[in-house]
């Protein structure tokens, strides 16, 4: 699980990230990347979104969100990406992500970060 300081929780923070961000996507995930983090003392915060369009059942949405959290936690733990360069990141799941394993999500997220041009 991500530490408290690395979680994006408030509605206004999500709204600001959506409005002031770049996005990259594939058929499974959409990444919204906020502004560059010039003040390195602020930690990067990550938020996860799995809407009812993905599945009407909360069990499926929560399981999908857990997979995304675990994949992100492993990426941060193993320093696979320089996530400290960004203020806020939102990871949005698409419907086809529900049947994918956590170990298969990690390379997808890394590949999407490679598409970002700042």
Word description of this protein:
With 118 residues, this protein is an alpha+beta fold. Strands 1-2-4-3 form a 4-stranded mixed β-sheet, with helices on both faces. The protein is globular and about 40 Å long. The model has no long low-confidence stretch (mean pLDDT 87). Helix 2 crosses helix 3. It has one domain: Ribosomal Protein S5, domain 2 (2-Layer Sandwich). The chain has 3 helices and 4 strands, in the order αβββαβα. The longest helix is centred in the middle third of the chain and has 20 residues.
Most strands sheet: 4 strands, mixed
Work out the helicity level.
Answer: 25-40%
Structural class: alpha+beta
What's the architecture in CATH terms? 2-Layer Sandwich
- The average pLDDT is 87
Distance linking N and C termini: 28 Å
Outline, from the CA principal axes?
Answer: globular
What is the CATH third-level topology name? Ribosomal Protein S5, domain 2
Strand content: 15-25%
CATH class assignment: Alpha Beta
Q: Report low-confidence residues grouped into runs of 5 or more.
A: none
Total strand segments: 4
Count of helices? 3
Radius of gyration: 13 Å
Order of helices and strands: HEEEHEH
Number of domains: 1
Going across the major beta sheet, what is the strand order? 1-2-4-3
